[in-house]
Amino acid sequence: MTYPIHRLSALAEITPRETEILVTLGDHEISRSKGEVFQIEGDAVHGFHLNIVGWVTSSIMLPNGKRLIQKVHLPGDMLSTPNMVSSKAIDTLIAMTDGVTAFVPFSRFGRIYADAPRLAALLTIAAQLERLALMDGLAMTGNASGKERIIRLLVDLHARLTLAGMIKDETFELPLSQEMIGDLVGMTNVHVNRMLRNLEDAGFISRAGRQFTFLDLTALKRLCPLLPRRPAIDLAWLPPAA
After folding, report:
1. Does one domain contain both 109 and 62?
2. pLDDT of the residue at 79
């Protein structure tokens, strides 16, 4: 089992040496059980995690004691990279499904900048794409209707799951409760339930438990006020591949 590199290979062709660096970047793989908390906000940190298999949530504690989910991670994501600017863990990581992760010490990650500068630049670009996605999510939460926010979440998940090879026949498993979805889109779980039922009644999606099927993705995209951004990057400025 090795770290999936589809997110970076979508940006540029990854050389065999860069691939070898990526798939050996983490320590030994660790199996995670559904519901397992494997990082707690405020823990001392000296690295971050690679997500190899499964869904993981990132959450923070609010002053009122409520835990707020801010991000859902899929295979190929780097978890808690904001830890690079803090001596303590920025967020809490919880496995939403059985999965596999690998820990990356900062010291090992730092060597990439000297040994493979083009790969380091691609990782920097990937981090900026994450920042862009968070900016778009904030814009949606502040300015879109509840229905539009749910549509945007579903369309975004479709794009990310497709890239990870996790959608079959336009169907995927969503291991999140409606309360968790509400955290992600800034709505109550009651409102989330109502909006999902509306999309079902309108023939856009179907649900069977936690299994979601896109019945008319094209129409959903037409209703989405802010589509997931596709990288359109001029890579001429990158250093040559080592």
Report:
1. yes
2. 95
